[in-house]
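Researcher: Structure for this, please.
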Amino acid sequence: MELFSQVYPDEIHIIQLDNGRAHLGLDLSIPDNIILLFQPPYCPEVNPIERFWKEVKKFLKNKVFDSLDFLRKNLANILANFSQEDIASITGYDFILSALSVAGL
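Model: Predicted structure, token format:
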């Protein structure tokens, strides 16, 4: 996380975690510009990436790919067509936006 923080020092980053065992490290140093947001256990429906992948999958459904490489290329093209505004609109849950507002971010 230190390296990530240093690459984007002027930005605040919220990393949402799913309470999995791997996300509960005791020796974790969290930089000031990173906020960890733990979702309730067993609640993938509140994870913004799940909503985003649901949108991405709309472009992939009913398609068969000849190779993993062809799937990767198609996925890269799909992702390239999403603007930052699109992604924010899809993943901007009210509870996250409210938390940012309360935090003054």
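Researcher: Any notable elements?
Model: The mean pLDDT is 84. The longest strand covers residues 13-17.
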